[in-house]
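User: Show me a protein chain along with its predicted structure.
Assistant: Here is one chain, sequence first, then structure tokens.
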Amino acid sequence: MTADQVNDGTGRTPTAGAEPVSGTLTLRVDGRHLLSAEAVAAVGAVCDSAEDLDGRARVVVQVSGVPRGPWPDDLTVSLVNKWERALRRLERLPAPTIAVADGDCGGLALDAMLAADYRIATRTVRLVVPVAGGATWPGMALYRLVAYGANGAAIRRAVLYGTPVDAVDAHALQLVDELTGDAAEALARAGERVRAVAGTELAIRRQLLSDAATTSFDEALGVHLAACDRALRRAAREADA
């Protein structure tokens, strides 16, 4: 897993880079690699840079590959916890996150893809829950597959047996937002779509969207009114500028 290193236009050289013009941070996740402290650090580096840019960046997560073989002997629950918390931080960034998936995606690649706001997949994609030791890996990818996808037999087979979910099924189940034969063109279109949305405001809308499934109207009203007040104040500041 790598985080691109380029100057972000502020005079600093962040560990996860941004192109000065586009404000794009890129995280590359190779699912063939097993979980490591370096993988956790790479996600953390991208998150650090996105937070430093205060909503003025977008994060592109490029994913591919699936792990082979058994879980490593030195893998600990402590490291898994750090990885899951790093992904949760990525999921809550004050920046839009766009995943681009190609080929078989499993393990770390599947984890990272499911944490993105918008997911682009080539037509060769298969989402693969790794199987080792007679069972699928019970990480939070299982939670996201069920929580973010439309309920379907393909998800149940993936979670229980590790049966790959092909690109067509992944799109039908809303696990990916777009299937494409040209990932670069699809990414450019997605970039234009998110360009007008401030990352800090996106983070608030993302949280409202998440809370809506588990919060009653009366409980949600105050939070939404506070968000409306924030939006009105923001608009007033822009009008005075």
